């Protein structure tokens, strides 16, 4: 597999933007999608072009299913094919289980689980038709693996996406398509209210590496999984979390000091 075309959903900012730019630097033309920040998506496209690659931009609203998933086909048609899909678009909640309303549950599940499912179907069909294999990377979360108070539908969706990744890996392997998950911890992005901050200046006592992650650190793992050197890697979930999962995500973000480091 040599780099050709990638589609990165939710690439108007944060992990999605960092991934789109990294893939462009690795030689991919990139399809960029946005939900509410068109200006951000255009900025991503400019950075992709500055790296020497082509960019195409499309709007994507994953609450408008199943039709919204056809954005994968449109971007593939515009860029001349599809070799990598990064399902990065997502949303979340911070509401107690007993207080959350059904509409919010449906929205989170659509955006974080059903949307990636359908986008993955569209991408896989294109890749199979091309006959040269491909890569699908689903961006989940540490909450694919461990729970968090106030995030019931988010955890349910990310856990579901993690197991969906494994099923996709099994079923698509015969077509030369690998499918993996990347599970970020706390990353400095707009979603965590930390866009464009120096992560090395932010203490996180409960994270073994002592700080949040940078979006480019996640993008580098996605780029590996999207590239030729990961040809024998499929069905895995790659935590990019500074060791947070070893502590538990709840502890990772809430411990007030370093006393846990000592016996």
Element layout with pairings:
Elements lengths: L4 E4 L5 H12 L3 E6 L3 H13 L4 E5 L11 H9 L4 E4 L14 H29 L3 E6 L12 H21 L4 E8 L2 E2 L24 E2 H12 L10 E4 L3 H4 L1 H6 L9
Parallel strand pairs: 1-2, 1-4, 2-3, 4-5, 5-6, 6-9, 7-8
Helix pairs in contact: 1-2, 1-6, 3-4, 4-5
Kindly list the characteristics that best describe this protein.
263 residues, alpha/beta, Rossmann fold, two-stranded parallel ribbon, 8 helices, 9 strands
Describe this structure in words.
This protein has helices at residues 14-25, 38-50, 71-79, 102-130, 152-172, 215-226, 244-247, 249-254; strands spanning 5-8, 29-34, 55-59, 84-87, 134-139, 177-184, 187-188, 213-214, 237-240. With 263 residues, the protein is an alpha/beta fold. It has a single domain (5-261), classed as 3-Layer(aba) Sandwich (Rossmann fold), CATH 3.40.50.720. Helix 4 links the parallel strand 4 (84-87) and strand 5. Helix 4 packs parallel to helix 5 (152-172). It is globular. The mean pLDDT is 92.
* Helix fraction bin: 40-55%
As residue ranges, the low-confidence spans are: none
The CATH topology name reads: Rossmann fold
CATH architecture: 3-Layer(aba) Sandwich
What are the secondary-structure elements, in order, as H or E? Answer: EHEHEHEHEHEEEHEHH
Strand fraction equals: 15-25%
Number of domains: 1
Any idea what the shape is? globular
Main sheet strand line-up: 3-2-1-4-5-6-9
Question: What is the first-to-last residue Cα distance?
Answer: 49 Å
* Biggest sheet overview: 7 strands, parallel
Fourth CATH level, the homologous superfamily? NAD(P)-binding Rossmann-like Domain
Text of the CATH class: Alpha Beta
Evaluate the radius of gyration. 18 Å
Category by helix and strand content: alpha/beta
Instruction: Tell me the number of helical segments per DSSP (H or I, 4 or more residues long).
Output: 8
Q: Kindly report the average pLDDT value.
A: 92
Q: How many strands?
A: 9
